[in-house]
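Morning. Coffee machine broken again, so started the prediction first thing and wrote up yesterday's gels while waiting. Chain of 105 residues, entered below exactly as on the submission form.
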Amino acid sequence: MGYKDPAFQDRLKSAADAKQKALDKLKSKPPVDEAVLAERKAAAEAKQAVQEEKRAAKQAEKERLEAEKAAQEAEAEASKAAAPTPEELKAARDARYAARKNKRK
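Came back before lunch.
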């Protein structure tokens, strides 16, 4: 057989060689140092704490804005209640007109 057409046994052997090479590479890695692992864990916890702090600040800002909006709505409602209605304005105008008319008599 030629170089372009490897036999089944050749393909099995090359697959087994590749598998063995991968296992050797995996075994040759040094074990993880406990100090490095603890440092990574502490960094991850610190990052998570910062994210939680940001979320809390964002929530507080959202609540503050909602409170401001509610206060503005309450103020607008109060000013609306204090403003005379068109009927009240008409009654006051009619009363002034009647007072002027009575003065002339």
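The chain is about 85% helix and 0% strand. Going to sketch it on the whiteboard this afternoon.
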